[in-house]
Amino acid sequence: xxxxxxxxxxxxxxxxxxxxxxxxxxxxxxxxxxxxxxxxxxxxxxxxxxxxxxxxxxxxxxxxxxxxxxxxxxxxxxxxxxxxxxxxxxxxxxxxxxxxxxxxxxxxxxxxxxxxxxxxxxxxxxxxxxxxxxxxxxxxxxxxxxxxxxxxxxxxxxxxxxxxxxxxxxxxxxxxxxxxxxxxxxxxxxxxxxxxxxxxxxxxxxxxxxxxxxxxxxx
Length: 219
Prior knowledge:
It contains two helices and eleven strands; from the N terminus they run H-E-E-E-E-E-H-E-E-E-E-E-E. It is mainly beta. The protein has a single domain, classed as Lipid/polyisoprenoid-binding, YceI-like (Lipocalin), CATH 2.40.128.110. Strands 1, 2, 3, 4, 5, 6, 7, 8, 9, 10 and 11 form an eleven-stranded antiparallel beta sheet that branches. Strand 3 (59-74) and strand 4 form a beta hairpin. The longest helix is centred in the first third of the chain and has 21 residues, at 2-22. It is globular, with a radius of gyration of 31 Å.
């Protein structure tokens, strides 16, 4: 009888031990999240270069500052907004009164109407990284194709262009290959050969050549 009681006690203890060890412990888990690196535009190192020309080939060059903006970049995914300081538009190939006169005309309602539209913007919608960079002779290698929306004078149009893009030491640097936009798409029709019938020497090409250079630092 004593042996039976001893056996029963041992059996009960063993069962309790087994169930205690099998009781799962609830460990809180955090879902895996993908963090996006945010980079703030450095306006002292970021700008747009432009070139406009008459039909006869006489051209002028200048810049438009990038006022501010934020770029989100992670695992080759790119998005963000760049804000353009249209009121800061500047000519770079003239001096004195000729420079001031051209800048004043470009800022007038004939062109960018900066009093009414002092800023523009470029919204980055997507970026496609190339498997192998395209390296034009003497030009900027293209590592990505950028797709986005350019807003000027309250009008938004889609544009695409190539760019070299890299991130080093928490700094994102990008430079586009030269590309063109058609100014009439944004309602800028002054002396356009497709709109007015004027003497050839007074006509201004619809195409504006553009290059963008920017530096952005991680927040």
